[in-house]
Description:
Number of domains: 1
Radius of gyration: 19 Å
CATH superfamily: Vaccinia Virus protein VP39
CATH class: Alpha Beta
Largest sheet: 7 strands, mixed
Strand content: 25-35%
Number of helices: 6
CATH topology: Rossmann fold
Structural class: alpha+beta
Amino acid sequence: MTxxxxxxxxxxxxxxxxxxxxxxxxxxxxxxxxGLIKSSDNFTISGECFVCKDxxxxxxxxxxxxxxxxxxxxxxxxxxxxxCPICHLNNRMRxxxxxxxxxxxxxxxxxxxxxxxxxxxxxxxxxxxxxxxSEYLGPEFDSGYIRExxxxxxxxxxxxxxDASFDSILSFDVLEHVPDYRTALTECARCLKPDGGELxxxxxxxxxxxxxxxxxxxxxxxxxxxxxxxxxxxxxxxPSEGILCFYHYGWDVLETLREVGFTNSSVxxxxxxxxxxxxxxxxxIHAERCS
Length: 291
């Protein structure tokens, strides 16, 4: 995709890359991005939309951006904004399509994605006929339930699919909302075909942390314990309230993947000014199912 792209298998390797200064540092990239920010409440940045195969003006605003520190300028939530005016996909969604096609996922026949009511799902459905998508509709439904409008319900910790059902499973910015994410990853391993089944993940990722940050936990009585200030993300099922974020993941998630049945788990780091993949290095996690 770009020269600012690398695949790393653990935190130690990331530290070695950083020490060797082979690639621009994350700090350097973020400083470079500051020159793109305009003082108005919204603005555009010209770039290439890989999905649309066209030169466009990506729309940027400050929705979901962090509150700036005293004396600091506000910075857009680059990852969730940079909207293409044609396909309506944001930064991370456009990058997912781009990276998946580079990894030849298009050759896979049986694909499941843990979303169904998003522009990303619609875009991928056009590329991969037979794609199965789902949403989490609530604890009152059994996995596999299909609503009258065709929306399928799946609980990632109790997937309804048979063993070895899929060539690929895609889950983008969903796992941080699953309190028992280890069981969710175990279920993904179960439903993937051995010898080649692949899992692709994105989530809030702490590039400089070996350990996952637990922001909230689900107690045995069903109550939620907030360890950090509650953070809510957009949710197509409940857009007015959003959905609670339980984790910001660290590099230790790669070891968790290996423990539950995956091999060759790795982090792909990427950044591109030309394609509008900003916000410092972005992350796509890839893991292969063990035989």
